[in-house]
Design a protein that fits this description.
Oligomer: single chain
Number of strands: 10
Largest sheet: 5 strands, antiparallel
Radius of gyration: 14 Å
Shape: globular
CATH architecture: Sandwich
Strand content: 35-45%
Length: about 130
């Protein structure tokens, strides 16, 4: 049994920006995307800033689209026993992170600026999935 190539999807904020602004200690929700059922999930992320970077990245899942893209939604939550995608991203190096999750119809990233995060900080995120054939 083999594996299909990883398919990556560019993630954006609710306005379609792929370099997503996370100023200071703001919490930003990306636009939701199809999560579906795959064998393996991953993400590619790269932050940039003219100052200090300090971000927490989580994956929220749901079986419905959010009522308002980019806003908190009671139908979205981090799955039980799921780890943060990155609990403290503090550099501008590209990172590849495995995502452990239960299956759901939709997902989105929740990005939180932690103490000391600069107001110029942005993050670029891609979501990947890979299936076995």
């Amino acid at each position: 049994m083999g594996r299909l190539p990883v398919a990556y999807e560019q993630v954006s904020d609710s306005n379609g920006n792929t370099d997503i602004a996370v100023a200071g200690t703001a919490t930003v929700y990306t636009k939701s995307f199809r999560f579906g059922q795959s064998e393996y999930y991953s993400s590619v992320l790269k932050a940039s800033s003219s100052g200090t970077i300090n971000l927490k990245i989580e994956l929220e899942i749901s079986n419905t689209k959010p009522a308002t893209e980019g806003a908190a939604d009671d139908n979205y939550a981090v799955g039980e026993n799921m780890s943060d995608v990155m609990s403290a991203l503090t550099d501008s190096t590209i990172h590849f992170a495995e995502i452990q999750s239960v299956t759901a119809k939709y997902a989105r990233f929740k990005v939180t600026g932690l103490t000391g995060n600069d107001s110029s900080t942005t993050i670029n995120l891609k979501f990947g999935r890979q299936d076995e054939v």
